[in-house]
Amino acid sequence: MTQTVLEIAELQLHFFTDRGVVKAVDGVSLEVGRGEVVGLVGESGCGKSVTSLAIMGLIPQPPGEVVAGSIQFEGVDLTKISQKELRKIRGDQVAMIFQEPMTSLNPLFTVGNQLMEVVRIHRKVSKSEARKQALKMLQQVGISREGILDDYPHQLSGGMRQRVMIAMAMMLNPKLLIADEPTTALDVTIQAQILDLMKNLNKEFGTSILFITHDLGVVAEMCDRIVVMYAGQVVEQTDRFRLFRNPKHPYTQGLMNSIPKIEDKRERLYSIPGQVPNPHQMPKGCRFAPRCEYVMDICRVNSPDLLAVEEGHLSRCFLHQEVKEVAATST
Amino acid sequence: MSAHIQPVPFTKPEPPISPEKEIVESPFRDFVRAFLRHRSAVIGSVIVLSFLLIAILAPFITSYEYTARSQALLQAPSVDHWFGTDEMGRDLFTRVIYGTRISLWVGLFAISGSIIVGSLLGLIAGFYGGWRDTMISRIFDILLAFPSILLAIAIVAMLGRSLSNALLAIAIINIPTFGRLMRSRVLSVKSEDYILAARAMGMKNRRILFHHILPNCWTPIMVQGTLGFATAVIEAAALGFLGLGAQPPEPEWGTMLADARQYIQLAPWTMIFPGVAVALTVLGFNLLGDGLRDIFDPRMKQ
Hints:
The complex is a heterodimer.
Chain A: E1 4-17, E2 20-33, E3 37-41, H1 48-56, E4 64-73, E5 76-77, H2 83-89, E6 94-97, H3 111-122, H4 127-140, H5 158-170, E7 176-180, H6 188-205, E8 208-213, H7 216-222, E9 225-230, E10 233-239, H8 240-245, H9 250-257, E11 307-310, E12 313-315, H10 318-330
Parallel strand pairs in A: 3-8, 3-9, 6-7, 7-8
Antiparallel strand pairs in A: 1-2, 1-4, 4-5, 9-10, 10-12, 11-12
Helix pairs in contact in A: 3-4, 4-5, 5-6
Chain B: H1 27-37, H2 39-61, H3 92-128, H4 130-145, H5 148-159, H6 163-190, H7 193-200, H8 205-213, H9 218-241, H10 253-260, H11 269-296
Helix pairs in contact in B: 2-3, 2-11, 3-4, 3-6, 3-9, 3-11, 4-6, 5-6, 6-9, 9-10, 9-11, 10-11
């Protein structure tokens, strides 16, 4: 983790809608180191997908706009450069795979066609060379069947298509792979295969992965470091061991408790009470306050900052800060 | 908890899961099979194909010239003149046969023109949105505000009466149909995941537009084009009938109907045969178009 590939700093992304401004991403900072797998976790609508699209420069504009902050990729601020420069980076240096393998491939073209297209957009290579590369990459993702290049997407199963998508994303050996819930739409057995595959690619090619998911099980399997988002903000950030052993933020604790445990005798599953706040009307103070078990008076008035609870473990909650202050005053 | 579980009634065992490697037909084979199974599509295509053959083989089907006059005026159908003769003694069968050429030409060119211009405008409106969309959509609205045949009459009146102007007028009045269809199709294809994926791969707008969006928009245009062909044939005949389209002695069906009007009681065959020709052509294209629509509609697939 000596070098960072991606560094998002205080990113503010707003959607200007008829009903007012939606702060979809509100001051998000995160880093992805070289060869690192970082998990971005949160409920639907918390801004994790928007963050990933912002990295790619794929937020429709208007209504979306990066209001403040920066996205540094290899020392280049992606929010400042032109569409043309961005296009050169997309697919080549930063690639993305999506949630729905069933609809992410163009139904009218063969797999080979689409894989070769990616190469030929970014590199000046002959068709036969591109074909060779495509075949090689398909073998890397575990498809060695002859003739796959001439298959149409509808002839493949969901798992196969996701492999093809991954091959497509990895074609040009990108430095960063953004995976937006790549296994959500797949069967559990296929899920495990795809996760294994991504882990292998990460090791073999040294590709950094930003893994977006709401599945904590997947996170535990995959990620070195985890960023938990809630309502457009980062609420907790640490490595996976600390997150699972010792979650600090009440929201993360709630997420952990929502996972059923086999030794549990409870008959009902735990769920965090309440709902994600309406993005048009964010609660004053801490955004999680209305749903928090440990809510204090201050939480309803002031918004806590994201502070280090200990070395390498950030949390956005007054709870720890107060504890610390109390501890500091007592000694 | 387990004490409360009711014994599950015995049900039929699930059928074995189908093997992973399905045998999938090629999309084209699929289409051909569905087409052949669809009765009206087959009937329609038979009618359309026979008219096409008639148009191509016209000089071999009849031995008369379509302008050749004879002494036999307004004769009833006979062995010499299968459909009889008109008021100038011309062989009606020959004229109807050659009329096929005109109608198919008009339909083909007018509809191709509408499709090309309409699709392009619809593509731009749907893909870029914003002021381009507003401008193009309003133009379509204006064109659609007039009854189409009235607009065609106005255009021909402005440009002068001739077959080529009629063709142009028919092309213009059909533009908004294709334009709107294309626009709506582009709007839905644009939001597909594979378009987002294409963007994420770093493709240029133009490449996405012509290589990824356009090919996915063709099906409804093709269906509408077939149906529009029928409309164009009717519109050409209507303009001809009003004396605004093909000019005599061109053997255009509408013009022939107009000429025959005076003799409807004396020699009804002069009206019946061109009329039947128009009706049959339109029927053929409509059946074919309806069939194609059913076949391409994903909801109709079993």
